[in-house]
Amino acid sequence: MEMEFNSLVDTLKRFNSLKIINKNVDSCWIQFSMESQEILESISSVLLEIKEQYPCNLLVLSNKKKPEDFSYKLIIESQNRTAAINIINKKIKTILDSSGDIEKAKQKELGLPDLSLVTIRQMAMELKRRNNLTFALVWIENNERDNIAIEGSGNPTQLVGLLARGSHMAIEWADKSIKFYKPSDDE
Description:
Layout: H1 2-13, E1 19-24, E2 29-33, H2 37-50, E3 56-62, E4 70-76, H3 81-97, H4 102-110, H5 120-128, E5 135-140, E6 148-153, H6 156-177
Antiparallel strand pairs: 1-2, 2-4, 3-4, 5-6
Helix pairs in contact: 1-3, 2-3, 3-4
């Protein structure tokens, strides 16, 4: 476990404004300070993501001599500390590799879905297999008004409401985005 713990410490050191103040391998905690709110949010989001499976906390500590100075203590309370450390380390490395952008990190971790070979009918069939999902897909092929198709699933009342809300949103978008040409009276 000591090797994994030191690897996590080294990963945390890769953040520019983060300084390790103290650490304890046996009690499994790392105390650090930093000035960047984004880094703190990144670390917090990782801990929140794994907290149910691997209990861990991030404590905020204030300095008695200088109350405006804060430090943070990452405590791993999980029974399986090695697994928790490895997961935290992996997720933080992914965030670092994505230049601190959490969305890019998640996309890198999960991958981009390739929809180039998926048809709308296949999407609808996959969505119909899901529970507690109301959806509606409406599409037109070749701009023929008689060639409109719809797929949907869910409570009929919710489905009709979904379609009505979608129509309303489309009308609002069209009002803002489409420029209409109004001929003058002279023409």
